[in-house]
Amino acid sequence: MKIQKFGGTSVGTPQRMKEVCNLITQEKGNIVVLSAMSGTTNSLVEIADYFKKGNPEAASGVINRLRSKYAQHIEDLYSSEESKQQTLSFLDEEFTLLHSFACVSFTDTVEKTIVAQGEIISTNMVTNYLTEQGIKVKLLPALAYMRLSENGEPDLPYIKEHLSELLQANPADLYITQGFIARNARGDIDNLLRGGSDYTACLIGAGLKAEEIQIWTDIDGMHNNDPRVVENTEAVRQLNFEEAAELAYFGAKILHPTCIQPARYAGVPVKLLNTMD
Ligand code: ADP
Ligand code: ASP
Ligand code: MG
Known about the structure:
By secondary structure, the chain is of the alpha/beta class. The chain has helices at 14-24, 40-52, 56-77, 81-100, 108-132, 156-169, 197-207, 241-249, 260-266, and strands at 2-6, 31-34, 137-140, 174-178, 181-183, 189-191, 212-217, 270-274. The structure holds adenosine-5'-diphosphate (ADP), aspartic acid and magnesium ion.
């Protein structure tokens, strides 16, 4: 079994989602971790921020803009009316939930719940698309197995046990799950910090002792410098876990800084791959 993680840009448009679906259906039995569509988590952070500042009108504006964007995505992604309607009614519930936070007092859990919806939406959209294509796919809800312990660190034995149970109870050719989101020790919605979907993939890969963890993104692997800042950077063909962790820690955004550790301890190789190529 391989763990394949696709970041926001890899699922950033309906066309990209279709390309990802083409890639992940080449093999059977893998677990696919998805981020939110690019830009969505930033919008959700903005929405949470407006609620926090007591400005529900501004939050409402951002929610409505996001809603029209997704309505168009649905139109472009699915071919059957049934899939469009199914996904639209799911999204209706999602946006009703977001609007409902105008009427509750703002807490850390409210913020985390808002920010979690990007991954919940993207994984539902992709699962519905694969189902429309006749693929035997199951959506594994990350909130049912991805758990932080009292000290805020991922609880690997819990993750391993609950994910294994879910897999056993849901035989399928392909599994989709959310990156980034988790529950804390109290059972409230939490997350693995920005960029945390990489961490999700590595935790799953380590917990299940996967054959390989693949981080698919918009560049051909880890470069020797940040290509957004430095010109003519090059992909580094091979890095040991320490070097990769060090580069990530010092800002190589392609990897979440701590994501590599569980894979390293479990001895599972991590590959960085380019969705665009
Ligand atoms: P994803 O949405 O797939 O998680 P990210 O934006 O988190 O993608 O990470 C990929 C981006 O990381 C690249 O587009 C690149 O601009 C940036 N990046 C920063 N430093 C590096 C580096 N050393 N090597 C490769 N990419 C890097
Ligand atoms: N969607 C989250 C973020 O934008 C997690 C991720 O993309 O890895 O930070
Ligand atoms: Mg990332």
